[in-house]
Design goal:
Pfam families: adh_short_C2 (PF13561)
Number of strands: 7
Protein name: 3-oxoacyl-ACP reductase
Helix content: 40-55%
Bound molecules: nicotinamide-adenine-dinucleotide
Family: Belongs to the short-chain dehydrogenases/reductases (SDR) family.
Strand order of the largest sheet: 3-2-1-4-5-6-7
Structural class: alpha/beta
Radius of gyration: 17 Å
GO molecular function: oxidoreductase activity, acting on the CH-OH group of donors, NAD or NADP as acceptor
Strand content: 5-15%
InterPro entries: KR_dom (IPR057326), NAD(P)-bd_dom_sf (IPR036291), Sc_DH/Rdtase_CS (IPR020904), SDR_fam (IPR002347)
CATH architecture: 3-Layer(aba) Sandwich
Largest sheet: 7 strands, parallel
Shape: globular
Order of helices and strands: EHEHEHEHEHEHHHEH
CATH class: Alpha Beta
Number of domains: 1
Length: about 240
């Protein structure tokens, strides 16, 4: 039977690349995003995909969206919690509203969508893949809200894996290194781009496709004995300990 994956933040970037690879692998995909025009444009012409407009930080909207996806597809076999927002700023300039904006999508969104999908995922013995970041593994300047939100997603992954394992649900986390998406290029100065090139053993940014390949593997039966894992897809950056501005 064809399996269904729910991908958040699917309108562009890593979420869209993941959607395309899942479709190629024979999945149906519920594409979730809050940016309606970009989501509809991305979904058009993708056979097997359907668009659902939703802000993942809004509890009631998330409940309604997950119910709509189940009504449309019948099951949810994999959840990719990918929607995220970037924020680079010093602690002194990170007021509470700014902090909450980052936590609302990057952390609350993962919690809310996972919770709403849990019964369907348990019924399907499915999989969750949470997208964190190397900024959740290592501290560097300007990432107080973003890095903390992603570190929390790493711990949330471990909590989910511990709790959902008895229902046959696997939960893993991918920590991408830098990828030239809209999110990253809005905050990566030339200084940061150069520093990443120097610090990454492979000396380059990753592509959306390279991150999506890892996500799709973790969704698939090929990863049937892999759960609770935090996997960096980062060209070796995390292993080096070299600093960044
Ligand atoms: P992107 O900006 O290209 O795509 C993110 C998508 O998420 C957008 O379509 C946006 O509309 C959507 N989104 C944001 N907030 C939302 C919300 N509250 N509800 C619903 N949709 C929402 O970014 P990307 O680089 O593809 O990022 C995808 C994920 O990868 C994010 O979680 C990001 O933190 C993570 N990540 C990216 C990089 C990188 O360098 N690009 C590195 C590490 C981690």
């Amino acid at each position: 039977m064809t399996k269904t994956a729910l991908v958040t933040g699917a309108a562009r970037g890593i979420g869209l690349a993941t959607t395309r690879l899942l479709l190629e692998a024979g999945w149906r995909v519920a594409m979730i995003d809050r940016d309606a025009p970009e989501l509809e444009a991305a979904c058009a012409g993708l056979d097997g995909a359907q668009a659902f407009i939703c802000d993942v930080s809004e509890p009631e909207a998330v409940e309604a969206m997950v119910a709509e996806v189940q009504a449309a597809f019948g099951s949810i076999d994999a959840l990719v919690n990918n929607a995220g927002v970037a924020d680079f700023g010093p602690i002194a300039e990170t007021d509470f509203a700014r902090w909450r904006r980052v936590m609302a999508t990057n952390l609350d969104g993962v919690f809310l969508v996972s919770q709403a999908c849990a019964p369907a995922l348990q019924a399907a013995k499915g999989a969750i893949v949470n997208i964190a970041s190397i900024s959740g593994l290592r501290a560097s300047t300007l990432r107080v809200a973003y890095g903390t939100s992603k570190a929390a997603v790493i711990q949330l992954t471990k909590q989910q894996a511990a709790e959902l394992g008895e229902y046959g649900v696997r939960v893993n986390c991918v920590c991408p290194g830098p990828v030239r998406t809209k999110l990253a290029m809005a905050v990566h100065s030339q200084e940061i781009i150069d520093a990443y090139h120097d610090a990454i053993p492979l000396n380059r940014y990753g592509s959306e496709q390279e991150i999506a390949e890892v996500i799709v593997f973790l969704c698939s039966e090929k990863a049937s004995y892999v759960t609770g894992q935090i996997i960096a897809a980062d060209g070796g950056f995390e292993s080096t300990g070299v600093g960044l501005p």
